[in-house]
Every structure is written in structure tokens, then in C-alpha cells.
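Re-run requested by the PI after the first attempt was lost when the workstation crashed. Everything re-entered from the original request form. Ligand of interest: glycine.
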Amino acid sequence: MKNPTMTLIVHGGAYDIPLETHEAHMAGCRRAAEAGWALLKGGGSALDAVEAAVRILEDDPTYDAGYGSFLNANGEVEMDAIVMDGRNLDVGAVAAVQRVRNPVSLARLVMTESEHTMLAGAGAEAFAREHDIPICPVEELVTERERERWHIQSAGTPHEWDGNVRLQAVGLPSDTVGAVAIDAGGNVATATSTGGTFNKHPGRVGDSPLVGCGAYADNQTGAVSATGMGEALMKIVISKQVCDLIAAGMSAQEAADAAIAALAERTTGQGGVIAVDRLGRAGIAHNTPYIAHAYVSAGSEIVAGIRGPNAPMLSEMNK
Ligand code: GLY
């Protein structure tokens, strides 16, 4: 088998990204890719790289993850995250956490320091305290933009049209973040983090922290991170589906395209995936208007972009 090419891809969500925020989405993805790539180039593991990349995206209020997450129907953040290590299929996840700045790092700690796979809510935050992960007031993760969005929505308006115009002025919804990588040793890893859906019922958990749905990584196939409407993505276990298609002989790009085609055919949902296969070949696919991403592999510069409907396949970069 050909030696794998060290590769990192990050995404900053797949949705109708407003034109005026394209720059911010690309800049954040680039910063995340720089952080992850610096670790990979220095001999770090794929797991270190995806965690570092997703932490940058969680700290950036542009995205629906960490600081800047959507608010639930109670006006509070509730975040989900997952990491998966392709070496041994180890997984760590957290769901509905409210007081942790970087849920992705808590997910990693669940993987390495507990006998469990997922911790939720108050129990996850207690675990964070036990392991000296800083706990912050829930208000610290709420941005003015999201507070305003929530107030407009919850106040209701006499004319729905007026409400929509005001919501548009606040900015259209944002989306989940994630990263996939393959390191110099040929090990793959993935991480995904989200604030979930706007105005969700408290306690709602989407696809992101569910293994095989929001993410999957297996050294025998590849690593995948998903974004989009969680209720649809989980129905087709989209990230595991991409890995299964790679196992059946597809490249990362072919598998990503086929999984998004299945999402469109079998559900009414929209979303996107990024994938890297065990050779380091990249794939990115979506049935949303746009997906924000950055890509880098050995021998190439970091490329950050907003991929639209007619964007070139990433596989062109794989030649
Ligand atoms: N894909 C993120 C969510 O639906 O929660």
C-alpha cells in the first residue's frame, strides 16, 4: 500500500453561510488548520491535531460551538462534542454541557480518563471539575448576537414577516465544527463540536456526540466529521456510512459524495461531511449551499474556502 499522506481538514459548518460572514468563516478555519497542522508537522498525533483545531473553532464566536453557540428554548447554551481515535476505536463524548469552554477537550478526557464513552449534563460537568477542567458561568458562553436572536424568537412578533427580517439582521444561523486528520504514522482521528440547533428543547442532543453519526475514525478506513441537521444525519449514521463505503473500495471523496446523496434521498435533511481516508486522500461533500473548510496536506499550503455548489472536488488536490 502507498505511504499515507499526512493531511488535515477542518470544517466550520455547512449551511447558507451569509456572504458577509464568508471571510470570518474562512479565517477561523484557517487558524484552526494552522494550529492542527503545526502539531502534525512537529510529529504530533492526529488526535492532538483535531482537538487543537476544534478548540480554536470553539473559541471563535463565528461558529455554533463553544463560545457563540445557539441558545436553547430556555436561553442557555447546551453543547455536544466527540473525539474518536482510529488506532483503537476509542471514543469520548459529552452531551448537553453548559459550563465548559472547550467541550472537545472534555470529550477527550472522557475517552482517556473514564471507563465510559459519553457523559451528559451535570454529570459531565462534575467530571470536568474532578479533572480540573475550568468551569465557567453559563453566561460567559453567550454572545450578544445569540442573546438578541433568542429574544426576537421568544418575544414573538405580531407579523411573522417582521420577525424574520429582524432575525436576518441578527445573522442567519451558524453551524457545527469539526476536524479530521491522518498523522505521519498513518493514524487517523476525528473531532466534532456543536451548540446544536437554535431554540432546541432543553436536553435535545443531535448527531454530533453520537459515534458513527457526528464522527467516526478507524485506521482501517478513514476519519469523518459531519455537520448539518442532526435529526437527519443520525438516521443514516452518516460518518460510519462514509467509512463503510471507503472499506468497500471508494476514495474519501466518492464515499463523502455517496453519503450526502443518501442523506438527500433517504431524509429531508441537509448537511455536509469532511473525510480523510487511510491514504490521506481528502473528501468533502454537502447538499447545503455552502460548507466552510480548510485543507492542508504534506507538500501543500493551507487552503481555506467556502465551497459552494459548483466548487471543485477536493480530490483534484489529491492527484
Ligand atoms: N449537527 C449538529 C446538531 O444537529 O446538533
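Saved to the shared folder this time. The pocket of glycine is lined by residues 176, 194, 196-197, 206-208, 227-230 (CB under 6 Å).
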